[in-house]
Amino acid sequence: MTHRVDKSKCFYCGGCVSLCPVMALVLVETNVVCDESKCTKCGICVKGCPARAIKVE
Ligand code: SF4
Ligand code: SF4
Q1: How many Å apart are CA 9 and CA 52, to the nearest integer?
Q2: pLDDT tens, 3-50?
Q3: Could you say which of 5, 6, 17, 19 would form a disulfide bridge with 48 (CB–CB 3.0 to 4.6 Å)?
Q4: pTM, whole model, 2 decimals?
């Protein structure tokens, strides 16, 4: 399972970073980076992204 952010949709609002309960996401310039070792695949960021840019596959 991996965490993917569609860069053509993401507008770097940082919402997913704030929503993640285990602080697995970091916004680094124009990339949302996920620490897969922390991510529990809860899907909160997927549902919360206003641009529907995130997929957990
Ligand atoms: S919530 Fe969506 S649009 Fe905002 S930074 Fe995260 S992936 Fe990008
Ligand atoms: S799926 Fe859940 S744990 Fe993983 S990055 Fe998104 S909000 Fe965080």
Answers
A1: 7
A2: 899 999 999 999 999 999 999 999 998 899 999 999 999 999 999 999
A3: 19
A4: 0.92
Residues lining ligand 2, Cβ inside 6 A: 3, 19-20, 22, 24-25, 34, 39-45, 56
Q: Is residue 57 part of a domain?
A: no
Work out which ligand 2 atom sits closest to the CA atom of 25.
Answer: 5
Q: Which domain holds residue 22?
A: 3-49
What is the 40 CA–ligand 1 centroid distance (Å)? 18
Residue 27 lies in a domain: yes
Rg (CA), the chain: 10
List, in order, residues 6 or more apart from 37 with CB less than 8 Å away.
Answer: none
Report how many domains make up the chain: 1
